[in-house]
Design goal:
Keywords: Membrane, Transmembrane, Transmembrane helix. This protein has 289 residues and is mainly α. The protein has one domain. 71% of the residues lie in helices and 4% in strands. A two-stranded antiparallel sheet has the order 1-2. Strands 3-4 form a two-stranded antiparallel sheet. A hairpin with a 2-residue loop joins strand 3 and strand 4. It is globular.
Length: 289
């Protein structure tokens, strides 16, 4: 989609607005539950407490949504009210070009994420996992498009260049984080389905390797440190979560705490290792220029 017409601008902006409202009115509600048109939806925090997992991160990890929504919101406003419709100007690629090339997947990701807030809030964990996988796939496509777009030779702190880079950062953060969120969702589904402790432990270990593998591959392929750093943020939060409700779930199953401690320690180590890889990736351009 070489040019982003007004209709796609409206669709993109509307989809983002719906996602923002659903996320903060339903998912991040300060109340344990909200009533909308007679239907009750439980907050993310309450649902997470109901289905504890071995990989549930510390609460601070979710603060990453703040910069994601702020950056994506700024890009949306800039696109609608400031940017022109040209795919490229003589001095570089615009935010409009990026949103134009990725608009189908971007709108789909926003609408799926809004749907996820309601599905998850309705206590349908397995269905929400499917929705989260859809979000991760769509954001992967958006990220791939974003990573492939260069500045067209423009450099410096121009409005066009800065807004493009910040939008690319937003999509990189978003894609990397929903990969981690999908892993958490899978583990919650295992709990909701009543799988045994042993099965949940295997899934938790597999989740760690999946998160590390995806992060390292993406960072290496696109020469982008953000996926590794975001994944490190998530893994360390998973490993350092003192509220992992061992006593609420696994004591009842007469399971020793040592394997849980070992798993959390390995998540922490993996997080620091992936983070180090991301920092090195970020430093390479600085050292070689």
């Amino acid at each position: 989609m070489a040019h982003l017409g007004l209709s796609w601008k409206i669709i993109n902006a509307s989809s983002f607005a719906v996602n923002t409202l659903a996320t903060y009115v339903v998912g991040a509600s300060k109340h344990s539950a909200v009533n909308i048109l007679g239907a009750t939806f439980v907050s993310n925090q309450s649902i997470s407490a109901k289905y504890p997992t071995l990989v549930t991160p510390s609460g601070y990890a979710f603060s990453i949504w703040g910069p994601i929504f702020l950056l994506e919101g700024a890009a949306t406003i800039y696109d609608v009210f400031v940017a022109n419709n040209a795919e490229k100007t003589p001095s570089g690629t615009t935010v409009t070009a990026l949103l134009g090339e990725s608009s189908v997947y971007w709108s789909a990701a926003c609408l799926l994420q809004a749907s996820w807030a309601f599905i998850f809030g309705a206590n349908r964990i397995v269905e929400s996992t499917v929705a989260m996988m859809g979000i991760a796939y769509c954001m992967r496509q958006v990220y791939a498009t974003s990573a492939a777009i260069q500045s067209g030779g423009e450099s410096g702190l121009t409005v066009r260049n800065v807004t493009l880079r910040l939008t690319q950062l937003a999509f990189s953060l978003h894609s990397a984080w929903v990969n981690c969120a999908a892993i958490i969702n899978v583990n919650m589904a295992a709990n909701a389905l009543g799988l045994s402790y042993e099965a949940q432990m295997y899934i938790a270990w597999a989740s760690m390797f999946a998160a590390v593998g995806i992060a390292l591959y993406t960072t290496y392929k696109y020469q982008d440190p953000v996926p590794a750093i975001v994944t490190a943020w998530a893994l360390i939060a998973m490993g350092n979560n003192d509220t992992t409700p061992y006593s609420a779930v696994y004591v009842a199953l007469s399971v020793a705490k040592a394997p849980v401690d070992t798993l959390q320690a390995q998540y922490t180590v993996a997080g620091y290792a992936v983070g180090f890889f991301g920092v090195v990736q970020a430093a390479i351009p600085l050292l070689t220029n």
